[in-house]
Amino acid sequence: MQNEFDLHFRIGSVSFNSKDALLLQAVAKHGSLNSAASSLGRSYSRAHKRIQELEKHSGPLLTRTRGGPGGGGSSLTKNAYGLLDRFSRLEVTFADILGTEEIVLQGQVLSRDGELATILTSAGPIRALLFTDAEYVQVSLRSDSITLHSPPFTSSSIVTSALNRFVGVITSINSHEAIAEVIFDVGSDITMIALVSLESLQQLNFELGSPVVATFKATSTRAVPFQS
Asked: Are the C-beta atoms of 118 and 110 separated by less than 8 Å?
């Protein structure tokens, strides 16, 4: 899984993502695939190939006209608008979840290495960005910045402190249309929440009670001073 959550849903064996949505929206705006690709800085051949790939699983996405006074062009089909509607609903769901799912912990600064600080929290030590001098801080990270792995998991990045790492147990899974909130206990009555795609959830074979390894970048974790 990627650390920065990539919104997408499956249609057949392919994923429909934000780049595909932008391409269809550009066709609707400009009236042709060629103009749409140009407006997005993509080649026509790659855009055409991508449309063909999606159409194998979704049915026709473009209605094409040739010649005539307007020189021909393309417009979106009902199938295409259906995909855009579905992606729009996914974006709304994700925004609603993300707006409320921020993990906040309090802790004491143990050491500093420039803008990176090591902070002792009730969940354990966490590396985070800290831009001011402080002894006690509040650490926050977004649920979409956490990557989940099946144990055992090791990474050379952890050795260089590029990643924070926690081991926990899944206590709840809330599934939506294409994403799921995975809630896991990392000990000391501390729970964390990660957003994963349903596809990744199935691939990792996660279920209630499954052990999990959670990692997140120090550079995606923020710390601000607070009075103890």
From this structure: yes
HSE, side-chain direction, 13 A CA sphere, residue 157: 11
In a domain, 147, yes or no: yes
Q: How distant is the alpha carbon of residue 212 from its chain centre?
A: 18
Q: Kindly report the CA angle at 166 between 165 and 172, in degrees rounded to 5?
A: 135
Q: Is 47:33 a contact under the CB 8 Å cutoff?
A: yes
User: Which has the higher per-residue pLDDT, 41 or 147?
Assistant: 41
- Sort residue 42 into left (φ over 0), alpha (ψ -120 to 50) or beta: beta
Per-residue DSSP letter, 207: -
Q: Quote the tokens at residue 78.
A: 């009902």
Tell me the per-residue pLDDT of 147-176, one tens digit each, with 9 for 90 and over: 898 887 665 444 455 689 999 999 999 888
The answer to whether residue 1 sits within a structural domain is no
Neighbours of 93 (CB within 10 A): 15
Please report which helix (H) or strand (E) contains residue 213, including its range: strand 211-217
Give alpha helix (H) positions in the chain.
Answer: 18-30, 33-39, 44-58, 78-100, 156-159, 198-204
Helix (H) or strand (E) holding 87: helix 78-100
Residues 34 and 91 in one domain: yes
* Structure-block tokens of residue 15: 């994923």
Supply the range of the domain harboring residue 130: 102-225
Closest CA to 141 of 194, 179, 185: 194
